Amino acid sequence: MSDKEKKKEQGYGKYILIEKLKNKFAGSFLSDRDSDNILVSTSMLLEGIHFSLVYFPFKHLGYKSVISSVSGIYSKGGKPETISVNIGIGNRFNYDDIETLVEGIEIACQNYDLKMSGLNIDSSLTGLTISVTASGIPDPRLKSETLAAETDIVCVTGDLGAAFMGLQLLERERKVFEETGSTQPQLEGMEYVIGRQLKPELDTDVISKLSEYELKPTSVKIITEGLASDLIALARRNRMGCRLYHNKVPYSRETADAGKEFNIEALIAALSGGDDYEFLFTFSVQDFDKVNDLDDLILVGHFTPEDEAYTLSLQDNSLAELKAQGWEEGTDDI
């Protein structure tokens, strides 16, 4: 593979790494078809990598760990039913900390109709670690008998980029706190973006609404790595290209306001940020009118033939390459 091809692949985010590993060790992986009725998803949150306890309450952390895991079941067109939790914890934590963490997990179980099938706690010398494995069953409301097509339309369920901006604000205040020892956080008016980072929610009500409108997606994913990365991953899964329209990508006023503080465009946060936990759907173009009538869906683009690659339509109607945050050998950015 040429250097140019390698560089291009690295721009597709962490999914290209996972895909290459699956291809190399294919004998030990179930194919997508074989795993249709075996829905399992695992997520891991590491202190210092995915969260900081300077600003992350234990209860919120427990809650988010569940959302992170069950989102993988929805991305496979399923309904999560059970979770198994593994916690690695050091001696600087006490019983109340662990109880509060598990309380957050329990609240998520209640809100998303889940049962805990197991709970394991081990010692950790490298900070707090939470691993949650979710299992579920296929949901016929999310499983279309129709394969994705080159003309399918692409929709999301809500605004994007807020969680990323919330993280920037929290990290800024953490650094100030660590430098000064005490300070009053400057977070007034930013409650929305901070809430999207600390306590994300999945809009599962939209699944019932799809059924009411007699709509079945041709593919589905949860946006966790940024719209660009997840849309590219969805297109690759279906052996398609995709086109995204910059003026259709939804973001909130609060996200734009926070972006001004960091000189970050809200569009960039929506494309390359993470932890949005919004649904990403594709539908047959024949369902356009139904999709257009459903307020919960925001049309942002469409699939294209695979050889047209992944593009972003700009204000002057020119096309730019749609890029995801990449992974490069020798870095920890995966």
Describe the structure.
- With 334 residues, this protein is an alpha+beta fold.
- The chain is 37% helix and 22% strand.
- The protein has eleven helices and eleven strands.
- A hairpin with a 5-residue loop joins strand 10 (310-313) and strand 11.
- The longest helix is centred in the middle third of the chain and has 19 residues, at 162-180.
- The radius of gyration is 20 Å and the shape is globular.
Secondary structure blueprint with pairings:
Layout: H1 3-10, H2 14-24, E1 39-46, H3 58-75, E2 78-89, H4 95-111, E3 115-123, E4 129-138, E5 153-156, H5 162-180, H6 191-198, H7 205-212, E6 219-223, H8 227-237, E7 241-245, H9 253-262, H10 266-272, E8 278-283, H11 288-293, E9 298-304, E10 310-313, E11 319-321
Parallel strand pairs: 2-3, 7-10
Antiparallel strand pairs: 1-4, 2-4, 5-8, 5-9, 6-8, 7-9, 10-11
**Which descriptor suits the 3D outline?**
globular
Q: Got a strand count?
A: 11
Q: Could you give the distance between the termini?
A: 21 Å
Mean pLDDT: 89
Helix fraction by DSSP (H/I, runs of at least 4)? 25-40%
Number of helices: 11
Largest sheet: 7 strands, mixed
Structural class: alpha+beta
Unreliable runs, pLDDT <50, ≥5 residues? 7-12, 326-334
Order of helices and strands: HHEHEHEEEHHHEHEHHEHEEE
Beta-strand proportion: 15-25%
What is the spatial order of strands in the main beta sheet?
6-8-5-9-7-10-11
Spatial extent as radius of gyration: 20 Å
